[in-house]
Amino acid sequence: MTAPVAPAAAGWAETALASVLARVSVTARAAGPRFPLYADPDTGAWRTTTRGSWTGGFWAGLLWLRALSSGAAEHRAAAADCTGRLRHWVAQDTATRGLVLWYGTSLAAGPGGDGAAAALRDEAARACLAAYEPEWGLVPWGGAFGGPRLLARADGVPGLVPLLARADGGAAAAYAHLDRHLHLCLSQDPPRPAWQAGPRGTWTAWPEPGPGWSRTAAWLLLAVADGMRCFGADDRLRAAADRLSALRLAPGARLVPSARGDDPSGPVDTSAAAIEAVAALKLAALARTAGDRRAADRLTDRGRLVLHRLATAHLSSTGALLDGCYDADRGLAPQHELIWGDFFLAWGLATLTGLVEPFTM
What we know:
Blueprint: H1 12-31, E1 35-39, E2 46-49, H2 56-70, H3 73-84, H4 97-103, H5 115-130, E3 151-153, H6 160-166, H7 171-185, E4 194-197, E5 203-205, H8 215-231, H9 235-248, H10 270-289, H11 293-314, E6 337-338, H12 339-352
Antiparallel strand pairs: 1-2, 1-6, 3-4, 4-5
């Protein structure tokens, strides 16, 4: 069967991006100084947090995308203020500092960008490198959100790899952190997202999140793409990228995965699809640089196809990406607008339309 093909990113992508960014302005007025987490699909009302939890960087990233799109001074000021409020997370014991402090700063901290965001990114890089534990070959999941500290989790890899790599002497730790997670997570089929450290360097499977979690492959694909950008496409990273791509970026793979792979009739997770689309566009850029035009075109087509599906089947008239699943096991926000889903959809659309580059380093 021939895979569907999305129309070229002319018109629909610009329209969808404008809608998502208009929603950002509505959300900003509703959230005020707080951080939006997830929104009710019927009312659009947001659940917010004071410090942003592990998702605060995505809200800052959305505000930077709005500022880049509009060029408005007030939008830039709002984004800078939000990024500044992420400094609390520099000292917190959690590998999700990668999600918070990379995605909350990287769109602003490039050459000629926001100096305060660049300084915060560099401060965060040093703090994360200081948390690296050579005995385990990673920055532990940490105790900031409770539970065992010495965990390896798939969502503790994206963002942290390029963040560690930016620190002086951090490249080896960044590679080891990525390699450890890939080795553990890909040791089972389907990939298992969480592992607990045991005695004498052993690791045992951790039950939460369980195998089949929608964002396992998504987070790992994103991290592998950044790793290949940082370190080159060596055999280990290429093999991981190939396996994960075969799982989620192949023509026959569902465009929007089930929130739980063992329950295909249950809720889907549009946030996972948006992450995968961004990863596909990153991998396409790497393939194009390497001269592999066929792979670049195939991956670009996949990313565009996923984004088109999200924009036409799951984006509300008010610019909210619906049908995201926060936590299927607990029944938490199973068909909601999720702030990271909005962010990755917006970033993917911004990449397609040329507003931003696939990599922000």
